[in-house]
Amino acid sequence: MLEIFQYSFMIRAFIAGAVIGIIAPLIGSFLVTRRYALMADSLSHIALSGIAIGLLTGIYPIYVALLVTIASAIVIEYLRTKRKISGEIALAMFLYGGLALAIVLISFARGFNVDLFSYLFGSITTVRMTDLWVIGTLGLSVIIAVYFLYEELLYVSFSEEAAKVSGIPTGALNTILVVLTAITVSLSMRIVGLLLIGALMVIPVVSAMQVGKSFVQTIFYAVFFGLTSVVFGLFVSYYFNLAAGGTIVMFSLLIFTLASFLNRK
Q1: Is the pLDDT of residue 176 over 70?
Q2: Secondary structure of 177-196 in HEC code, one letter for each residue
Q3: Which of 55-64, 120-129, 202-211 ranks highest by mean pLDDT?
Q4: What structural domains does the chain harbor?
Q5: Are 211 and 259 in contact (CB under 8 A)?
Q6: How many angstroms separate the CA atoms of 112 and 2, rounded?
Q7: Residue of 58 and 206 predicted with greater confidence
Q8: DSSP class of residue 58?
Q9: Half-sphere exposure of 44 (CA within 13 A, CB side)
Q10: Dist CA 142 CA 238 (whole Å)
Q11: What is the pTM of this model?
């Protein structure tokens, strides 16, 4: 069974998948706590526009997607806080707007192609060394940022008004959180795919809530469940020739079912 590691592209996929399996539930824990889970889906649709721009212009698509999603995340947060637009409305506007722009750009390229499908649904065979360096470097940056800002992010996530009264710079922290979300979404496209990254950021967290006794435990369980889903999903997708992203999400749903059963017991 371990002959899978004879192939360099699978080793790269497992390394990249491990990073995504950590940072997606890590950031998702704060999003779910804030009831902001739709952020991942909105940014994934916006990232699709970035991918389309990259494919049309010949620029490395992940770089373009990173820039587009980070800029959009900052604008969404600005609209939510400064323009008195609810977070749900701002997210919905960018979700549909990003999807519409992507469709228009794709039409210029005369429809879908193999490269675009690999970003939409994930493709373990397309993880290159360039992807690995980008995912590893930015993934580590996300982990370090959460480590040093954990208490502040936790406070803001549970009670933004109380955090503001306590003198915590909630505006800056909210912006940092959405930027970290944008980075996570952009990095996950090769492994899970843009259409399914929201599931990997939410389902392991909801599963962890079934068994965790505190927020710290919930984060650790969520990361463990995320990593487990990625590892088993990559194994099964390779040996049974299945789509990696869909298989990973199906395993995360299976874990949720088991966690829910244990919680009832």
Answers
A1: yes
A2: HHHHHHHHHHHHCCCCCCCC
A3: 202-211
A4: 2-260 (1.10.3470.10)
A5: yes
A6: 35
A7: 206
A8: T
A9: 25
A10: 28
A11: 0.89
